[in-house]
Amino acid sequence: MAQQDDLFKNIVSHAKEYGFVFQSSEIYDGLGAVYDYGPNGSELKNNIKTYWWKAMVQMHENIVGLDSAIFMDPQVWKASGHVDAFNDPLIDNKDSKKRYRADVLVEDHIEKINQKILKDVSKAAKRFGEDFNEEEFRSTHPNVTRRQEEINSIEARMKAALENEDLVDFKALIEDLGIACPVSGSKNWTDVRQFNLMFNTQLGNIAGEEGKLYLRPETAQGIFVNFLNVLNTSRQRIPFGIAQIGKAFRNEIVARQFIFRMREFEQMEMQFFVRPGEQEKWYTYWKEARLKWHKSLSLGDENYRFHDHLKPAHYADNALDIEFKFPFGFKELEGVHSRTDFDLTQHQELSGKKLQYFDPELQESYVPYVVETSIGLDRMFLATLSSCYKNEDLGEGNSRVVLALPPVLAPVKVAIFPLTKKDGLPDKAREIFNQLRLDLNCQYEEKDNIGKRYRRQDAIGTPYCITVDHQTLEDNTVTIRERDSMEQERISIDQVRQVALEKCSWGKVLQ
Ligand code: ATP
Questions:
Q1: Is the CB of 82 under 6 A from ligand 1?
Q2: Nearest-CA residue for atom 3 of ligand 1
Q3: Model confidence, pTM
């Protein structure tokens, strides 16, 4: 665990040192759970957005894009249920004065039991080798079955407490499990209370409730209220989707773990409108399609798992998370939700406008059902950064930090170096730089020795470095050095563009 903590600390400081992520308003000691993206961070973030947009919009003829405003009529949030029900159960520790999400405390406790099960499973797998049958082991080994039953009963009690809004039993559950505050170690808890996560502000000079505006806590509602506009202008037929990337705001109770949980963050959401009754089919389709999108980046297939929701949110009949193995354990990266016709029906009722679709095949009108995929851009950024960060031992006392980013996501694709600052080498290097940057994000560097320049590019994940030397002036060749293998090859200048474009092509991840 301590090793994982160190790894996480190293990633956070690497992110700052190399211009990926800065604390917001740092010169004023920083604003909690708000972050800014630096020169390399904004490139990486844009590339992740592009990957999502291309995969969802460009590669699906039946998905179109939208860019709706952050501010919306406050009635939107009444209709969606956010004013009344967008709450988290919170609990304070009286000794440390630290505030926690009650459900997260219980989930962390469950994860500890789960880790013990995994330990037994991996020990047995080693002992039995190829003959090991995990399913049989899990269903028969007394320690494992006892622990699994314990997990099931905790989950059932938490589910009942949430469904019945029984906050007294929620606190009793925390006490019965003997959960202690990670900071003070004490079990001196306050009662569990509900806390609404929406930020609000005031419209113009209208005082009081009347002028109250919310900062959207999700981008989805902008899609729902534009359902008819898009339908009438895009010539789409059901099933079809609307995709959007944009900021969302939540007044999170516990905002720790760097950019994992922020108060201002970005979402990439897609609402897929389907015939009533077909939602399960599409839920399964999108669950698999989204996992495939993740795995295409080759960040490690073992880093993903599905987690079905115990209690889907008030609007959903089915929901799951795609969890990722962050340095602090498996946590939600993306949600896939079957949102029924809840949102459109609610908006139809409150606005008095008919939000229906006439199905030419069925010859009837209905309110479509919706399957949503919702991923946090910042969490995706953290997943990418943390799984690509490597501290490599190169032998003979040498090491390097390398970000083994998928080339399509790398902030800089090619770095171009003149070997020295003399003999016309910079001019030649700039000539190559000026040509390559028309197609690829490139960097020109002449400071420090070549070794140092390689290390700097490794640290930001640049797939290729090109060095221009005296031989270049004679035969028009350069050395090209590949980030992961560190191998160098001499190739003709004319080939560089093709090699780099091939490696950084979107086609590599979109198929
Ligand atoms: P959590 O249980 O972690 O609070 P959630 O279930 O409330 O998340 P959703 O409402 O399903 O999250 O939002 C969709 C996605 O938006 C999440 O999968 C996550 O990637 C991202 N997200 C949600 N809240 C935050 C946040 N505070 N900071 C960064 N990303 C977030």
A1: no
A2: 332
A3: 0.87
